[in-house]
Amino acid sequence: MAMMLLAAGRSLRSILHPRLAGAAAAFSSAPSAASAAAAEAERTIREGPRNDWSRPEIQAVYDSPLLDLLFHGAQVHRHVHRFREVQQCTLLSIKTGGCSEDCSYCPQSSRYDTGLKAQKLMNKDAVLEAAKKAKEAGSTRFCMGAAWRETIGRKTNFNQILEYVKEIRGMGMEVCCTLGMIEKQQAEELKKAGLTAYNHNLDTSREYYPNIITTRSYDDRLQTLQHVREAGISICSGGIIGLGEAEEDRVGLLHTLATLPAHPESVPINALVAVKGTPLGDQKPVEIWEMIRMIATARIVMPKAMVRLSAGRVRFSMPEQALCFLAGANSIFAGEKLLTTANNDFDADQAMFKILGLIPKAPSFGDEEAPAPADTERSEQAASM
Ligand code: SAM
Ligand code: DTB
Ligand code: SF4
């Protein structure tokens, strides 16, 4: 067969104008080897998630030609998820600023002058009011953030937060917290209170991490993730791109996440929001192509995770965000504020969902196993697109 095609190519060239013959030659010698993105996506679809990725394997997926990577991210996404569904999460900073840590990207560190006023823990009424509003606006997950290194030694505040978790879970929403490092016992108490997920990002690769944070280690972060996992709470862990890291560091981050004993249920991909006054205040903005590469690679190597198009989304146009959803993102932060910085306009997000045919994802409480989309559902979705 190959010989016949080769012969056909040769005889075609012999009767064509030289310029067309050149084009035909280029066509017949087009690279035929499948990219790593294609090969790994097909393997993922055939064999399911794996935790034994080598770093070069993930690097090869990441380095695949961009449109091929995007296409195969989309392929895995459609195979594993209901591709029209996008989870909407609302963030609330329940304890803002004055943080002891030196995370170079963070406007909430007390070491940098960003003009942010430190505040005490928000009271119950204000938090529940914000959760109610988020629910009414269509969010199904409410995530409370505190500018703390850790929760140890904050018994009163921690008990108050347990109360908030119980109440918000009682409102029928998924609840997430990001409170810094936690101990095993605190993770268990959060679980008992009804916490769905705990967010604790690795931020970047192990090698690049000391350039960004010196006040706690990569292993400290992994330890918190282990406490969360052992307590039976979903893990939300990802990172930030645009910190000045090399592409190898982005791959390093994904490699650490994809080789955890179980993949995180959520992987937020943040593009640095460069805040004046922080050491990274003058970083150049992340380009959409970098975001797509990161999202599609995450989708292929951690197929079941919710991949969240997180901070930095405000800078991307609707068509740019559409490419991110196509590549495999299926979660966003909704609402006009992240923790302390601006997020996308609510009406603009509503319009985007309508135009792109996206539908909000219903909450899931983990007691029921999320079914993989049946073929019929996938084709129904395809038909209605
Ligand atoms: N203090 C807790 C901690 O560090 O785990 C919780 C809050 S902290 C603000 C949560 C995450 O937000 C960080 O790990 C980081 O990934 C992300 N983040 C903070 N500032 C950011 C920025 N300027 N741009 C993008 N992501 C940012
Ligand atoms: C995550 O990965 N991104 C969110 C959430 N988890 C807590 C935080 C983004 C913060 C962006 C800067 C700010 O608004 O302060
Ligand atoms: Fe503090 Fe978290 Fe900001 Fe680091 S990222 S300075 S720990 S609030």
Automatic annotation (TrEMBL):
Which biological pathway? Cofactor biosynthesis; biotin biosynthesis; biotin from 7,8-diaminononanoate: step 2/2
GO BP of this protein: biotin biosynthetic process
Cofactor comment text: Binds 1 [2Fe-2S] cluster. The cluster is coordinated with 3 cysteines and 1 arginine.
Cite the residue spans of the region called Disordered: 364-385
Check the record and name the InterPro entries matching this protein.
Aldolase_TIM, BATS_dom, Biotin_synth/BioAB, Biotin_synthase, Elp3/MiaA/NifB-like_rSAM, rSAM, rSAM_sf
Every Radical SAM core domain range: 84-313
Q: Does the keyword Cell membrane apply?
A: no
Q: For binding [2Fe-2S] cluster, which residues are annotated in this chain's numbering?
A: 143, 176, 236, 308
Which cofactor does this sequence's record say it needs?
A: [2Fe-2S] cluster; [4Fe-4S] cluster
Output the PANTHER family linked to this UniProt entry: BIOTIN SYNTHASE (PTHR22976), BIOTIN SYNTHASE, MITOCHONDRIAL (PTHR22976:SF2)
Family, per entry:
Belongs to the radical SAM superfamily. Biotin synthase family.
- From the Swiss-Prot or TrEMBL record, give the protein name: biotin synthase
Native species: Setaria italica (Foxtail millet)
Q: Which gene encodes it?
A: LOC101755195
